């Protein structure tokens, strides 16, 4: 298969590249400077040149708080450009795998969200991502939309790296304990996407929207505790901070986050035979890759 990954420099984009290197697929994963997905003619040119058999859209405007004051650019990248990719895939008669988010939900439920549960995004980011899902659905039937949550990896910016960086300068960290979700390793999501691509290659066609996140829900506070437990066990961290639990109202953010965004992943398990690994195991791997004192530099 000829696989085109957009947003090649993001967490998911880089994890996909690491895994694609070990496959027989031909692939390209241009970063934003090589393929800006908001540029319709650039997409068309790239398709003509590379002739992909499948596209994974890992590009997104992901700055959740900044999006509140940059609505236009968030909408352009997360909604309009998702539609451009969908239309171009439709024209080329190839499927599009598009990534979305748990932030399409308002977080008022107390049991894991199923794919068909009512969406009600609370932020510009969530609103533009939900509109992006609709743009993809409208553009072509041959799509897979994967909603995921709390993505971390050895690359880019994420909660794990932020915690490790802050531990170097603060003996006490206050972390929100009343928001619940599932941390997801971008590498595990990349593995799941590649498994789906293999099945698409052999004719599997369960198009539609799915949830994928790592197994076992936690709070940001619980996640932080495990990060430092694991880092401590690996012996690579000099300063283990004290983690103090606070509530969301003690840590006001510009964008509103759902209090509960645990995703029910049974549909993707059933339709695509995908397994959800426990995030703690993946976290151990990521920590062993990261140099703790330098956690922001990858
Ligand atoms: N991160 C999370 O916690 C999280 C949670 C739920 C869902 N998701 C979804 O998961 C997917 C992957 O997220 P991620 O964590 O890998 O995000 P990420 O690390 O922020 O990567 C996104 C990539 O998209 C690129 N990009 C932005 N605008 C672009 C444009 N106009 N054209 C081409 N590329 C563009 C960025 O380029 P630059 O590197 O140049 O900025 C960046 O490399 C996204 O759809 C996101 O919405 C993420």
UniProtKB/TrEMBL annotation:
CDD domains: dTDP_HR_like_SDR_e (cd05254). It catalyses: dTDP-beta-L-rhamnose + NADP(+) = dTDP-4-dehydro-beta-L-rhamnose + NADPH + H(+). One of its GO terms (molecular function) is dTDP-4-dehydrorhamnose reductase activity. It is an enzyme of class 1 (oxidoreductase). The keyword Oxidoreductase applies. Binds 1 Mg(2+) ion per monomer. Residues 1-289 form the RmlD-like substrate binding domain. Catalyzes the reduction of dTDP-6-deoxy-L-lyxo-4-hexulose to yield dTDP-L-rhamnose. Belongs to the dTDP-4-dehydrorhamnose reductase family. This is dTDP-4-dehydrorhamnose reductase. It comes from Celerinatantimonas yamalensis.
């Amino acid at each position: 298969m000829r696989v085109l990954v957009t947003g090649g420099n993001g967490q998911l984009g880089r994890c996909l590249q690491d895994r694609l290197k070990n496959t027989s697929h031909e692939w390209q994963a241009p970063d934003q400077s090589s393929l800006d997905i908001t540029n319709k003619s650039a997409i068309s040119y790239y398709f003509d040149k590379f002739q992909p058999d499948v596209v994974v859209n890992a590009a997104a405007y992901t700055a959740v708080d900044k999006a509140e004051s940059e609505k236009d650019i968030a909408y352009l990248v997360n909604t309009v450009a998702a539609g451009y990719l969908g239309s171009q895939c439709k024209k080329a008669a190839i499927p599009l795998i598009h990534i979305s988010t748990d932030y399409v939900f308002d977080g008022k439920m107390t049991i894991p969200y199923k794919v068909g549960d009512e969406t009600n995004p609370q932020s510009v980011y969530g609103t533009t991502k939900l509109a992006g899902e609709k743009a993809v659905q409208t553009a072509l039937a041959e799509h897979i939309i994967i909603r995921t949550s709390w993505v971390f990896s050895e690359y880019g910016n994420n909660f794990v790296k932020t915690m490790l960086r802050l531990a170097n300068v603060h003996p006490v960290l206050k972390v929100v304990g009343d928001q619940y979700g599932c941390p997801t390793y971008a590498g595990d999501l990349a593995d799941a996407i590649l498994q789906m691509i293999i099945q698409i290659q052999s004719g599997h066609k369960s198009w539609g929207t799915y949830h994928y996140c790592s197994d076992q829900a936690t709070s940001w506070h619980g996640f932080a505790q495990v990060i430092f437990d694991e880092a401590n066990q690996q012996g690579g961290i000099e300063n283990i901070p004290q983690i103090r639990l606070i509530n969301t109202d003690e840590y006001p953010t510009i964008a509103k986050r759902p209090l509960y965004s645990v995703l029910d992943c049974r549909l993707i398990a059933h339709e695509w035979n995908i397994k959800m690994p426990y995030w703690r195991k993946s976290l151990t791997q990521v920590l062993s890759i990261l140099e703790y004192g330098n956690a922001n530099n990858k």
